[in-house]
Amino acid sequence: MPNWAPRIFGTSHQVRGEVAYVMFACASWVFLVPAFDADHFTRFLETLHVEKPFELVRFLMLPTIHRFDPTTQTHQYKGNPCAQLLSRCTVLRELHMKFYASIVCKSTLLDLLRAGNHCVPLRVDEVLDYFELRSILNCTRLCRIELYGVVPVNDYRYQDFDSLETLAEIGRWIKKEFAEQGKKVEVVLKRSSGWVFHMDDLGSEEL
After folding, report:
1. Which residue of 80, 106, 191, 199 shows the fewest CB atoms closer than 10 Å?
2. Tens digit of each residue's pLDDT (9 = 90 or more) over 9-59
3. How far is CA 84 from CA 18, 33, 139, 178, 205, in A?
């Protein structure tokens, strides 16, 4: 959630809406981490007494959307909070999301045994359904999407194939779906290797 948002919770609804309108106009990017921050941010927007508060969000970064796990969700979250937020930000212009190779590949013990101890890329529809990513199509004003794919360092399970190919296919799927609606969206896949505090750039490609 934007660091200024909690500071105006104690104000009146009218003041909160006026301040938020100005702050969104000045601070272009909304950076949500951790993933459940999307739920808090959604509820914050719902308290604003401005017309169409979700249309204030034009640039959104979701660096931890990959941490969503529907099998561990409590009754508090009915679905992916990040995806639900996306579905309401209909005038979003640019979106950044990060996924690790271990998320877009099958890596259970049984999967590893079947694949000769190597990970197997998931199908596009599996990832789309798991993270509810089809909600992106509600963002009809999108101009650019950046997908960040991260491969673990020195992990042999991911070395003999393109472990981010599914992510690339998702980018192509997004571009195709918008093209069928008559909209042109630039989709870029940025590859890196490493962990949280150290990333080596492996290049990028426009899909």
Report:
1. 199
2. 556 566 666 666 666 666 667 777 665 578 888 887 887 777 888 888 888
3. 25, 15, 11, 19, 28
Q: Is residue 74 part of a domain?
A: yes
In a domain, 104, yes or no: yes
Distances (CA, A) of 131 to 124, 148, 190: 11, 15, 19
Q: By residue range, what is the domain housing residue 115?
A: 93-198
pLDDT digits (tens, 9 = 90+) for 102-142: 777 765 545 555 555 566 778 899 889 988 999 999 999 99
The whole-number pLDDT of residue 179 equals: 95
Which of these, 168, 174, 106, 102, lies nearest to 143 by C-alpha position?
174
In a domain, 206, yes or no: no
Residue 12 maps to a domain: yes
Alpha-carbon distances of 139 from 46, 56, 167, 203, rounded to whole Å: 18, 13, 19, 27
Count CA atoms within 13 Å of residue 28 on its CB side.
5
9 shares its domain with 37 = yes
Tokens of 129: 């359904």
If DSSP codes are grouped into helix, strand and coil, which group holds residue 10? coil
pTM of the entire structure?
0.80
SS3 169: helix
Residue owning tokens 């393109």: 162
**Domain end residue (candidates: 86, 106, 141):** 86
Query: Per this entry, what is the length of the chain?
Result: 207
pLDDT for 183:
93
